[in-house]
Amino acid sequence: MRQLLILVILILFSSNSYSQKENALIQDGLEKQEEGNLKGAIISYSKAIEINPKNFWVYSFRGSAKFDLNDFIGAILDYSKSISLNPTRTGCSDKGEIYSNRGLTKASLKDYRGALIDFSKAIELDNKNGQYYYNRGFSKRSLKNINGACLDWSKSGELGLSNAYNAIKDYCN
Length: 173
Known about the structure:
- By secondary structure, the protein is an all-alpha fold.
- It has helices at 2-35, 38-51, 56-68, 72-85, 93-108, 112-125, 130-142, 146-158, 163-171.
- Helix 6 (112-125) packs antiparallel against helix 7 (130-142).
- 36% of the residues are buried.
């Protein structure tokens, strides 16, 4: 019994130290990313992923750093991994944010259909976020669906995003 107790304590202690190291690496990555040291941030996030490859947030953070470095393919891969690890829940604004980030990345590659799908999924998960409608509106505009774009920008404005009215003024009249 005593050996079992020691084993449990060792397992808890070791997993806690891994968790502490993972958290320290994530914090280091976030600080480096904030400072503009994107390559350093990616290294820290990658080390955190080695410790815990199931933490969906780290893939999202690393995807964001890759996006800022214009590594759009790498960013899409990380956002996709983050989405696959994140449990599916409707009303999950976190997952909506990751879909939206991947949509922005796809739009940067002029994959407007892929971006449209991701923004629509983000809206499905969090239909109170005006930014998602705004972004989807630009994807629709790029696909020559002006009426759909104008409807999305209108909804975005209703949800409080004032920039949406500028888009309506510029493209819908």
